[in-house]
Q: What sequence folds into this?
């Protein structure tokens, strides 16, 4: 069956961006503060780049534009 | 259109990429989530176009009215640029974006648009009249399961905590695997096996593994991958082929600290973890040996791809 006969409902770029932003929430994490200085545990490679703190600030304004 | 990649640049080297489905026929609204080395897609496209131009006979296929080339997913997750011969326009190819090799593609279906090419494998190949209703319904269910965005920026940390609280279980191997890129564009199986064997303390080159697995330029047969494991490990490990894959089996292997191979229609990758969200959304943590000589790591939704086989690598029973 040719793909173009399947009549897919395509998502707009904005819709796809909103979906991506929502899903990302369950991959990011907010680290709780270490009880004592120097007690911070090193993050596993699977988590290291998903830190909320590491996100550049301008990402948030872009996310908020999505919400409006 | 298959998917849209949304990227967040973290710094000069790294990015987060969320790959969202482009249509409601693809079962899950989010295909994969990757955090790692940033890809310069525009640079890769420019390089591939230069190579196409250097052939003198080939030209990229542009969709009517568009001035820039479209990328084609010619064998998920491989991407390339469709092109055709200027002297024989019916001869079509895909230029792989990373490996810069030409992949010949078959003739298109009758009355297909000129930019259409019959690919090696596309996720749309699974969509047919009997499955279309199910795929659309799974898409809507998965859409409803997405976490909620907060109303304000200040609400983001709480929204992240709420979304994370909905994770039922997540686990990786201990230690986590070390990523290895495949040496050639057909070494996905040897590179995947190397990733797994290294986890068990066995060091073999991709060439040694490819020889043991009888790897050809067309790839490696799953049966040959499995048969090679005992010899490559001095009979300390067995390879076992599973043609009836399930997410639950994937969880069991990772819980037992045994990474394994996932095989799809055209590609082999190593699974080194999993994650389950409330409502049943399931993810595999995959070590993909593509792009060649680099590789990449990402979470892939269980419903995104079709895992045709697993290869388990387990301690031999005959020790």
A:
């Amino acid at each position: 069956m040719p793909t173009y006969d399947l009549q897919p409902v395509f998502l707009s770029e904005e819709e796809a961006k909103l979906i991506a932003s929502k899903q990302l929430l369950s991959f990011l994490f907010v680290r709780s503060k270490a009880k004592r200085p120097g007690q911070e545990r090193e993050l596993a490679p699977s988590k290291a780049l998903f830190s909320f703190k590491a996100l550049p600030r301008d990402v948030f304004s872009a996310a908020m534009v999505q919400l409006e | 259109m298959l998917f849209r990649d949304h990227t967040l640049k973290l710094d000069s080297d790294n990015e987060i990429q969320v790959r969202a489905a482009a249509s409601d026929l693809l079962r899950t609204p989010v295909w994969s989530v990757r955090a790692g080395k940033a890809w310069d897609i525009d640079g890769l496209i420019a390089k591939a176009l230069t190579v196409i131009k250097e052939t003198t006979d080939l030209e990229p296929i542009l969709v009517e009215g568009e001035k820039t080339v479209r990328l084609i997913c010619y064998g998920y997750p491989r991407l390339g640029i469709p092109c055709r011969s200027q002297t024989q326009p019916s001869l079509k190819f895909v230029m792989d974006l990373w490996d810069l090799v030409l992949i010949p593609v078959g003739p298109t279906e009758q009355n297909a648009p000129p930019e259409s090419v019959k690919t090696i494998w596309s996720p749309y190949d699974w969509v047919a009249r009997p499955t279309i209703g199910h795929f659309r319904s799974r898409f809507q269910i998965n859409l409803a399961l997405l976490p909620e965005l907060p109303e304000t920026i200040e609400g983001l940390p709480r929204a992240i905590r709420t979304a994370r609280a909905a994770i039922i279980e997540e686990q990786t191997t201990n230690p986590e695997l070390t990523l290895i890129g495949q040496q050639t564009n057909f070494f996905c199986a040897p590179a995947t096996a190397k990733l797994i064997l290294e986890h068990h303390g066995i060091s073999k080159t991709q060439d040694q593994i490819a020889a043991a697995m009888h790897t050809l330029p067309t790839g490696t047969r799953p049966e040959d991958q499995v048969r090679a494991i005992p010899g490559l490990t001095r009979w300390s490990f067995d390879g076992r082929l599973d043609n009836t894959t399930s997410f639950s089996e994937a969880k069991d292997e990772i819980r037992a600290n045994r990474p394994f191979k996932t095989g799809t229609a055209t590609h082999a990758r190593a699974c080194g973890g999993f994650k389950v969200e409330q409502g049943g959304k399931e993810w595999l943590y995959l070590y993909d040996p593509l792009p060649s000589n680099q590789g990449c790591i990402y979470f892939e939704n269980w419903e995104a791809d079709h895992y045709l086989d697993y290869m388990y690598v387990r301690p031999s029973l005959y020790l």
The radius of gyration of chain A is 18 Å. DSSP finds three helices and no strands in chain A.
